[in-house]
Amino acid sequence: MAALSVGLGNMMASMAMGYTSPALPSMRADPSIEITTEEESWVGAVMPLAALFGSVVAGPLVDKFGRRFTLMHLNWPYCLSWILIASAGGVGGVVSGRVLGGMCVGVQAVVGSVFMPEMIQLEFRQVFVAFPAFFGNLGMLVSFALGQALSWRGLARLGASLSLLPVPLLLLLPETPQHLTRTGQREASVRALRQMRASGSAADRAQKEIEAGAASRAGQQQEVSALELARAPNLWPVGVAMGLMVAQQTTGITAVVFFASTILAAAGEGLAASASVFLGAINMLGTVVGIYCVAKMKRRDSLLLSTYGVVGALLVLAAFFWAREAGGAAMQLANSLYLMPVVALVAYMLCFAVGWGPVPWVFLGEGMPSQVRGKAAATVVAVNWASAFVVTKTFGWSLATLGSAATFLSYAAFTAAAAALLRPAMPETFGRSTPEMDKIYRDAAGKKQQ
């Protein structure tokens, strides 16, 4: 139930993020609303900026009011954001709804990454940790597929009707034991653990682990400051998490999605016409593969495997667009190998789903120190949204200045460099509980101090 509630929240977030792709063509054709090209860019770009703000305020919210409380009451503004869009009389109403929805997306990303590892015991986490990614891609597929049949208002009404689905699940769940223990509510924490664990003895063992972690920090202040993120033992995992989030964006996922219709057009008009649905289906397939890898593979191994596939696919795409731009015999060769870029696109999406897609978010959930988990998650997610905005805004400049082939080549170089730098420094979280990770960080900080 905990994993499903977070998964449904991620489904709403991905529907909000992917809304513009099917909705903007419908807006252009709607005589009841006038929208310019500049306004279209703002309808799309305002959401990651609002999500950046939402991720910043999520840290204090999740620490003060609790994980479950914040996650449950987040659904009301989600619903309102869709209602604002569906009832908008002009672009201003659409942008207002997108701003509110973007803030909810930013909060959702932070709270979900904190709520999941604190609710789900270690032996089940390897499977359930994939729920957010699965439902996130499901939301994208629903948005792309139903957007072919529904108007922009109809798609927004659908979003409003689905946005309250997590509430019944969250009503039946307790607050996370870590938050209850941290705020001095030990008895409530024990009751929550006995509700969630298979036996009373398992609940008591879990409570002792949580209290042992809290006791090791007894000398620290209850409310940690943001400066604690830059100090040992927190700097190591938080720094790696930030690097993973930046690297996730510099793999070129935005460029690949943007060029999907062009790549598929090389294989035939039928695929180009349904490019968004095809891309959503590939995402779903990649998620299934990613679920298996998350459950069975170490995080660093998943990252390495993903890097090989992503870099290889980007090099193929770079060669394809270079040949198309070169003209002559090279262009003829590219046209004769029209299925090659389609295979590269599929390979890229699948390999991205194995490592670079889920691993930064999985590490955020599994690898953050418990004492600063709320603030750390908020900071790391803010870095993700900021890097997504920078990469998206520089994408057009890169195309105009460097060309599409050099753009894809640069993304391949960034991905290889990120893997070489981050993978050795990344602490392995596979099969380790939050108290175990806390001990690893404390021991490393102690050795460094000595």
Key terms:
single chain, 450 residues, mainly alpha, 0% strand
Descriptive overview:
This protein has helices at 2-17, 20-29, 37-64, 67-73, 75-86, 91-119, 122-128, 131-146, 152-162, 166-171, 177-182, 186-196, 200-215, 235-250, 253-258, 260-265, 269-273, 275-296, 299-326, 328-336, 339-354, 359-367, 373-401, 404-425, 434-449. With 450 residues, it is mainly α. Helix 4 (67-73) packs antiparallel against helix 6 (91-119), helix 14 (235-250) packs parallel to helix 23 (373-401) and helix 19 (299-326) packs across helix 20. The mean pLDDT is 81.
H/E series, N to C?
A: HHHHHHHHHHHHHHHHHHHHHHHHH
Structural class: mainly alpha
Mean pLDDT comes to: 81
Main sheet characteristics: none
Our Rg estimate from Cα atoms comes to 22 Å
Task: Itemize the secondary structure elements and their pairings.
Elements: H1 2-17, H2 20-29, H3 37-64, H4 67-73, H5 75-86, H6 91-119, H7 122-128, H8 131-146, H9 152-162, H10 166-171, H11 177-182, H12 186-196, H13 200-215, H14 235-250, H15 253-258, H16 260-265, H17 269-273, H18 275-296, H19 299-326, H20 328-336, H21 339-354, H22 359-367, H23 373-401, H24 404-425, H25 434-449
Helix pairs in contact: 1-6, 1-8, 3-6, 3-23, 4-6, 5-6, 5-9, 6-22, 6-23, 8-18, 12-13, 14-22, 14-23, 14-24, 18-21, 19-20, 19-21, 19-24
